[in-house]
Prior knowledge:
Blueprint: H1 7-34, H2 39-48, E1 53-54, H3 77-91, E2 96-98, H4 109-118, E3 122-123, E4 126-127, H5 151-171, E5 175-178, E6 183-184, H6 192-208, E7 215-219, E8 229-230, H7 235-245, E9 249-254, H8 264-273, E10 277-282, H9 299-316, E11 323-326, H10 335-353, H11 358-366, H12 370-382, H13 386-395, H14 402-409, H15 411-418
Parallel strand pairs: 1-2, 2-3, 4-5, 5-7, 7-9, 9-10, 10-11
Antiparallel strand pairs: 6-8
Bound molecules: D-allose and zinc ion (3 copies).
Amino acid sequence: MNTVIDSGIVEQHNAKAMANLEADYAALGGMLARRGKDIEQLTALAQTFAVALPSWGVGTGGTRFARFPGPGEPRNVFEKIDDCAVINQLTRATPLVSLHFPWDKPTDVAALREYADRYKLGFDSVNSNTFQDQLGQAHTYKYGSLTALSAESRAQAVQHNVECIELGRALGSKGLTVWVGDGANFPGQQNLRGALERYLDSMRGVYAALPDDWQVYIEHKLFEPAFYATTIADWGTSFACATELGPKAKCLVDLGHHAPNTNIEMIVARLAQFGKLGGFHFNDSKYGDDDLDSGSINPFQLFLIFNELADASARDGEAFKPSYMLDQSHNVTDPIESLMNSAVEVQRAFVQSALVDRAALAQYQQDNDVLQSAQALKHAFRTDVSPILAMARLRSGAPADPVGCYRASGYRAKQAELRPAKAGASSSGIV
Ligand code: AOS
Ligand code: ZN
Ligand code: ZN
Ligand code: ZN
């Protein structure tokens, strides 16, 4: 397998970190043993964790005010794969990449697949883009895509999604994520019911093109770019559409796509209960679709989501397999560092959720012992599982401290030389 960072750098880094890590690991192991938990099992569990990388996340994003490009940004899909390979090499938690078309459309699909395969990277759900007009596009999406009143725009949007499925199929992907910005800015602009009818009609065309072993993920979002009425604004609409379309249609939860204070873990529980939880776009936010690093603002919420996922897994076993993907955008950090950080934070919530004593919790709930029920969760959340995560990485050939090792490798400075900035670079500035 090809690696991007010299494996000698990783070994050197780990040799220095080993003594401290072993001490911390032994101390945590003792503490967990007293709670009836086997640290070795937890470390093995951590090693199974995987979250997919968003291809658009390795570039510097923008706001609607400006974009400040970073040094050494990837200029094409192959360079994006290189950056994703670095992230996976240093975390061993991100073996799949989620591509976005047409941004990532390769001229040679087989060559792209082969290129990724050399790094042992695969492809998760592919994303369609009908929220922008592309150069030379025949029909505009200014007034909507899958919901547009123009039959030509709608047909073009359906055709684009079908093309995404074909590209994804050639890459070995098994899913299509559809997020549309369609909606209205003013009351009266749109017949609300009519727009959703057109959406469903268009999506039936997309659904019909899905291979048998594929799923389509419907991503809802409360607002933006439509400010008054977004067609797929909430999980209720998403659920209704997924139900209407059929068993291959599921709902995708992006953590930044809800009103402030929404109980997202409850949405997760509902969708899991009714078999419609397709996947996630993990990120964090303070106000809206901020697309900040996972766990940077509200790590407890992330933990509570994983607590629901652990409950669903315990109930449904192997059959319960939502896709985990990151969706974030960086203005002020190195995207590779932020993505590594996010992957580790999501993995942290996954491991912490395994610390919840589910039998004790069920008994507290049965007894209406509210205080202890809440404490059972807090107890797991407060446990610092960092030594488990570091040991899991080490055993999988990754560094104990991914960001430290990445900085020591000088990768970014090297790329800044190899990848001089493109004039007017913009591609992935939209989130
Ligand atoms: C948009 O807000 C969504 O989060 C989508 O997932 C979008 O396709 C992605 O963020 C890339 O722009
Ligand atoms: Zn998203
Ligand atoms: Zn988001
Ligand atoms: Zn978003």
